[in-house]
Write a sequence for this structure.
């Protein structure tokens, strides 16, 4: 197959990648809704096409966590001949919530991920600012 010219690649003039991000076909209806809500709720250029597999995993983990939480809420303790024990859904819920938090961190979905980080070095000061600071330090106003 011949090489494709870079000019033929899809792009959106305003920098948005939303048009390029489509939910994978293997997602069910609820997972698709989570996927679309997530993409539409983020900034227009927050995700790139290579994020689609992680977004799909996140959507599956969110729905799995909701199902496990519902089952756990319905029957938190299982009674048996050996006594009461926690529902097996507890371990499933814990694993799903761990997946959700890990993927959220990887996709920068937390409030900390949306805030621009501070530069590691302060902005350089101009010669005039430096002169004014030295003059103020030495009492030469």
């Amino acid at each position: 197959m011949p090489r494709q010219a870079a000019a033929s690649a899809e792009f959106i003039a305003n920098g948005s990648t939303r048009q390029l991000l489509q939910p994978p076909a293997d997602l069910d209806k609820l997972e698709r809704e989570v996927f679309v809500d997530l993409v539409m709720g983020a900034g227009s250029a927050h995700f790139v096409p290579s994020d689609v597999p992680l977004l799909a995993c996140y959507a599956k983990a969110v729905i799995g966590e909701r199902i496990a939480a519902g089952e756990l809420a319905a029957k938190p303790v299982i009674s048996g001949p050996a006594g009461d024990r926690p529902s097996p859904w507890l371990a499933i819920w814990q694993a799903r919530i761990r997946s959700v938090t890990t993927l959220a961190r990887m996709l920068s979905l937390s409030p900390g991920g949306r805030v621009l980080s501070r530069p590691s070095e302060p902005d350089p000061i101009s010669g005039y600012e430096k002169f004014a600071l030295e003059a103020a330090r030495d009492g030469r106003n």
The first helix runs from residue 29 to 41. The two ends are 73 Å apart (CA to CA).
